[in-house]
Design brief:
The protein has about 150 residues and is an alpha+beta fold. The chain has a single domain, classed as RutC-like (60s Ribosomal Protein L30, Chain: A, 2-Layer Sandwich). It is built from 3 helices and 6 strands. A 6-stranded mixed β-sheet has the order 1-2-3-6-4-5. A hairpin with a 2-residue loop joins strand 2 and strand 3. Helix 2 packs parallel to helix 3. The chain starts with a helix and ends with a strand.
Length: about 150
């Protein structure tokens, strides 16, 4: 009886592996230092199985300095960088399926929403907004996205 269970378990595991489930998928890494410098050990974009994950974006200039202390300017700058990255990937805002927004001051939520709606205008993706104590480089906002090809 134990042999039959082991045999059936092994057959099931082999069938799952041969069907592709459980196998690691290839991932494609994209970096765009000409758009925004990475300030740590991460990739700008990781792509796998038709999903495209864009690392959190903060409003840094090409030298790695925060562009402004105003959340409205930071937000617009981030969305412009996201536009550039999406274009390089052959994607657009309609490809976005999930957005996460991190803010250090949720009282500015309305201002961020107004700018957000200038860039993402219909068929809104899922979204989460999280209040955080602080962000890298003193940023007031960070945005990461997930797209589907």
């Amino acid at each position: 009886m134990k042999f039959k269970i082991l045999y059936l378990t092994t057959l099931f595991a082999l069938s799952v592996l041969s069907s592709g489930c459980g196998q690691s998928r290839d991932k494609i890494i994209h970096n765009f230092p000409e758009i925004v410098p990475a300030i740590g050990p991460y990739s700008h974009v990781c792509e796998t199985d038709g999903f495209v994950f864009l690392s959190g974006q903060i409003a840094l200039d090409s030298k790695g300095n925060l562009i402004s202390d105003k959340i409205e300017e930071q937000s617009r700058f981030i969305f412009e960088n996201i536009s550039k990255i999406l274009t390089k990937l052959g994607l657009n805002y309609a490809s976005i399926i999930k957005v996460t927004v991190y803010m250090t001051d949720l009282s500015k939520f309305k201002a961020v929403n107004e700018i957000y709606s200038e860039y993402i205008t219909k068929d809104y993706p899922a979204r989460t907004t999280v209040g955080v104590k602080e962000l890298p480089k003193g940023a007031q906002i960070e945005i990461d996205i997930t797209c589907k090809r």
